[in-house]
Amino acid sequence: MASSTSTASPVFALSSSFQLKPSNSRNNNLPSTFFPSSPFISRKSSCRAMATVIKENEDQKVVAEESFPPKAFPVQDGEGGSNQGPQNSSSDNDSDKWIIKFEQSVNIFLTDSVIRILDSFYHDRHYARFFVLETIARVPYFAFLSVLHLYESFGWWRRADYLKVHFAESWNEMHHLLIMEELGGNDGWFDRFLAQHIAVAYYFMTVFMYMISPRMAYHLSECVESHAFSTYDKFLKAQGDELKKLPAPEVAVKYYTEGDLYLFDEFQTSRPPKSRRPKIENLYDVFVNIRDDEGEHCKTMKACQSHGNLQSPHSYSDSLGEDNEALCDPAK
Questions:
Q1: Bias category Low complexity: which stretches (predicted)?
Q2: Contacts of 75 (CB under 8 A, 6+ apart)
Q3: N or C terminus of the chain with fewer C-beta within 10 Å?
């Protein structure tokens, strides 16, 4: 995905704004400062498989929920709202690259700091570590929802697909947490204390970050999901034989195989609905599917870092093909 000309924003100072295009697409009902179009070049642990990109042009209308018009922000002379005109595109791009690098550096530092904390306390206590990890991992999604509902209350804009997908992601992570609780990951008082206090701090930090730079907030979540994928993948390789001998928790069987799986399909924005139906025969299958869920979150968070790339898979399921790419390979 190519980066477009960016400009400074009076509201989201750390985000680069996207290039404005004349189009009839309803995807343009966002404030021009909210979702920058420059995608992140992710850290070492980046995903090879990117979520499907929904491209906009004058001949192809992308369906999104239409609502009241967004709060208008002034656009000056020059494409993209630059008050210096298009001749400053080179300096704008340089500034945008510097901002991206800064945001990534901060996110990597924050993620690595939490990883060091988890490594120091949970070297051999796998289920307790997973309980803490899942308590933290679900926080960004309802933090995003908090800010999105706030903007909707202000009358700035309404974007149903973002609300649906982020809620489905939160629902998925909540079931990961329920599985870890059934496995005894929350038995220790200290584990609950640590997880809950980190989660509360993480919530307010994510809300603030999302209001300043949604791109930065989404990249941080990508880093967290990438670490989760790597953690579960290593666990499966090390403990796979033992896990195959153990029964699956009842909550996992119900979530992955029973009832209405609409929300299960909803958070997987890179694949058509109903294209993934897990089998759950033992505990090994449970952790395989949790790992694969984290890979899907990783791809969705990567796509979110560019304006207009997030849409409910139920909105365009006919145009999606089966995703044959690797889910998320932190080693790449």
A1: 27-40
A2: 20, 32, 81
A3: C
- Domain annotation for the chain: domains and CATH numbers: 26-319 (1.20.1260.140)
Task: Name the phi and psi angles at 217, rounded to 5.
Answer: -65, -40
Alpha carbons 229 and 223: distance in angstroms, whole number: 10
Could you say which DSSP state residue 247 is in? P
Contact between 226 and 46 (Cβ < 8 Å): yes
To which residue do tokens 């153990």 refer?
Answer: 246
pLDDT of 88: 52
Closest CA to 1 of 264, 279, 304: 304
State residue 67's pLDDT score: 30
For residue 114, what are the CA distances in angstroms to 60, 119, 173, 198, 236?
43, 9, 18, 9, 22
What would the mean pLDDT of 89-97 be, rounded to a whole number? 70
User: How many residues are present in the chain?
Assistant: 332
Quote the CA–CA distance of 90 and 98 in Å, as a whole number: 13
